[in-house]
Amino acid sequence: MRINSKLKAIATVAVMAFSASANAQLNVFACEPEYAALTKELAPDAKIYSATTAMQDPHQVQARPSLIAKMRQADLVVCAGADLEIGWLPMLQMKASNANVRSTDKGLFYAAEHTITLDQLTQVDRSMGDVHAKGNPHLHFDPYRIIDIANGLTAKLSQLDADNRLQYEAALADFTSRWKAAIPKWEQQAQGLAGKKVIAYHSSFRYLFHWLGMEQVADLEPKPGLAPTSSHLASLLKRAEQGDIMAVLITSYHSDRGAKWLGERSDLPVMRLPMSIGGNDASTDLFSLYDSVISMLLEVK
Q1: Please, which residues bridge with residue 28 across strands?
Q2: What is the mean pLDDT of the chain?
């Protein structure tokens, strides 16, 4: 009886140890809220930290001690890539001294490397402003590219945490099913936006416009990364006077000063669209972010 009791105790401890190992939480450092949200869909039990909010320009982030500490603890770093984070991510990686998240062979994941980016350039120089040779990095507003990225991220999660591969694959299947069901609903809802023209800040919504058949005819920035100048705004006013512009659009983190100047003089509505999860009260995950942006655009159609 004593032997059986001891064996049962040992078996119980072994099962508990295995269970704890199988449910071990990955520490994930996401560069942007959209990739924190996508990781949450695929790894709901992971500990996920977003380095930025929808109210911050992801091009410009300070390597704060809190971010360094979070990266030092990370098993996986998930970022947009295409050099969006080139101004701050390498500094964080160096200061965090975490060799596991310095290479995409290990715990570093770039979304842009798992799909095809728009607007790739063969040559880039300083005179062109803040452009990205590897293409536009604001990928998360194309629902079809999100599927590509989700597949790549699931493979990375399974690589780092092989014991839970089946759980990640099941979560991917569930997310993909719900996401694919939402796409035709969004496209049906947004049919009236096809062909609409806007003036917008930066190329932040490039993928959204490409997907919905909209056209950004002008940029509030004279060059990418530069604030609107009076002469540039004057030229935009002339363009707006042609009468075919639907609205002036800015992101949740850009200044609205130039947009308001243009909107007041051209009698065009100025709309601040959420750039990511948390950009407005309605955007709490990827699904509601899309719902919110499309609904807002339809308000001024």
Answers
A1: 48, 76
A2: 91
pTM equals 0.89
- At 37, list the tokens: 């949200």
Q: Is residue 72 located within the same domain as residue 126? A: yes
Domain boundary pick from 185, 217, 241: 185
54 with 120, same domain: the answer is yes
Domain count, the chain: 2
What is the chain written as a DSSP string? -HHHHHHHHHHHHHHHHHHHHHTPPPEEEESSHHHHHHHHHH-TTSEEEES--TTS-TT-----HHHHHHHHH-SEEEE--TTTTTTTHHHHHHHHT-GGGS-TTTTEEEGGGGSPPSS--S---GGG-S--TT----GGG-HHHHHHHHHHHHHHHHHH-GGGHHHHHHHHHHHHHHHHHHHHHHHHHTGGGTT-EEEESTTTTHHHHHHHT-EEEEESSSSTT-PPPHHHHHHHHHHHTTS-EEEEEEESSS--HHHHHHHHHHT--EEEE--STTSSTT-SSHHHHHHHHHHHHHHH-
pLDDT in tens, 138-192: 999 999 999 999 999 999 999 999 999 999 999 999 999 999 999 999 999 999 9
Q: Among 5-19, 71-85, 91-105, 225-239, name the one with the lowest average pLDDT.
A: 5-19
